[in-house]
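Problem: given the chain below (337 residues), write out its structure.
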Amino acid sequence: MADAQPLPPFLWLTEKDVTSLINLSGVVAALERALLLEAEGKAVNMYKAQTVWNAGSVNVTGAQFVSEGFAGGKMWCNVGGSSEPLTILHDAANGKVKAIFESIALGQMRTAALASVATKYLAPEGADDLAIVGTGKQSITQVAAVHVARPLKRLRVFSPTPANRASFVELVKKQFPFEVVNAGSLEDCVKDAPMVATFTRAREPFLKADMIAKGAHVTAGGAIIPAYAEIFPDVVARASLIVVDNIEQCQENARELNDAFAAGQGAGWSAVQQLSAIVKAANGKVARPAGADLTLYKFMGLGLGDVAAAMEIYKRAVAKGMGSKREHAVRFPPDLS
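Solution.
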C-alpha cells in the first residue's frame, strides 16, 4: 500500500501580511456575504466561550462554512485591555490547518465591519453626521466603519477625559477629510445627531433617551460583558427596531437589553432581530422602518466575522504567494507513564 501523499504546508500570516492583503472595505464585503450565508443556513456561528477573572478573560469564537470548505476559530486572552489573538482556519473536509493568522488588526476590522453593515441597513439614508462617545482603540475603526456605510461630513467626539478627546480629534483629522468637533459634554456631542455610536468601558449607563434625536440610529458596542453598560433602558424602550449580531450571545451577556426587558421597557426578546436576517430580507436596501423613532444595534462580537475575513485573506494570500509556510504536525505517541 502506497504511503499517503504529504499535505502541503499551511500558511502563517503576520499582522503585516493581513493588513497588506485586505482593507476595511474588503472585510465589510466578506462579512456581508457571510451573514447572507448564515441566514440561508450555509454558515453557522459558534457560540462564544469565555472565562473571566478580575484582571482579564480567555475567549474563543468561531464558525463553520462547510459549503465553502472552511471552518475555524479565534482565541485570545485579554488582560487589562491588551490582547494578542490568533485565528486558525481549517479545511472542513479533513480538519487540517490551512492557515494561522495574527489577528489584532483582523479583529479590529471585523468589529468595525459589523457596525458598518448594521449602519448600512439601519441608519437614515443620507445621514452624514456621527456622534461617537469613547476614544479608545476601537473608536477610530468604528468611525471608519460608519464612513464606509454613510460618508461623513461631520464627526462629534466626546470622552470624559479632555486630553484623550483632544488626541483622538487630532488623530481623526489626520486620517479623514470631514469636519471633526471636540464636544465639551455628552449632551452637546449627541444633540440632533442622526447617528450615535458608543464604545466605552463604562460600568454604568450614561446615554438617556431624551438626549437622542428623533429618527436617529444608535450603535451600542462597548458593553460586551454583563459588568458593563452604556445605554439606559429608556433608549431600548424608544427603539422601533432592535438588531443584534447574535441573539443567544446577547441574551446571556447584553445587560442593557436584559435590564430593559426585565423592567418592562421595550417589546422583549421576541421582537429583537438578528443582523443576518435583516441583511437577507433587505436584499441590499435600507431596512429601517418608515418613520422609525430610533433604531438600535447592539453587538457583542461574532466569530462568523473573524472566520469570514480569514477565508478571504487566505484566498488572497494563496493567489499572491504570501505568508510563510509551516509543516503540519508529525505525530508521536504520547508518554502514558
